[in-house]
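Quick start: read one record
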Amino acid sequence: MSLRLYYAPGACSLAPHIALAEAGADFDLVRVVLSEGEQHKPDYRAINPRGRVPTLLVDGKPLTEVPAILAYLAQRFPRANLLPADPFAAAKGLELASWIASTVHPSFAQIFRGDRFTDDAAAKEALKTDGAIRFQRHLAEIEALFADGRPWILGDTFSVLDAYALVVYRWAPRLAIDQQSFPGWTAQVRRLYARPSVLTALAQEGQAPEPAFQAAA
């Protein structure tokens, strides 16, 4: 079986990238340069007509949307324990993935991708203001998940939801939001940066942990 992940640094494609690395999968990487509009070119649109990343090609067949890709990888590599074995706990993980994809990510897109919602300049400014408020509210909601002292976002063990939440955590500085204002989440991210799969995926995308974490290492 061949796997090829189309990704963009800084995008939500980091989550399936980490999942693939965590599973020890054999896969190819193809970078999509969003700033040059490669996601809109015919070759990529033939793979993903929506012109978004990530896309995972499975034996040449495209799979899109982060929750779907993470669910597939968890089933494809069961020994990697990418999702909890308990059906209800796994469903709660997919519930969280769906919320990030349908609610958290769109609030961030309101700020930086207003053209997805409207062509009106005034409306885009209103979207930015509203998106910033909503995005910060969502960050606080994720932080609240760690109020019981859990080490990982679903409880006692790592899952692909930790990787997905990391994407959102790394977006916070783009809005000048202090990541250290989320102590429970920050502790979890520190544990993530100790995992070889996370560091490998970041390095392959030309990225690294934030300076605060590097200084503490």
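Strands lie at 3-7, 28-31, 55-58, 61-64.
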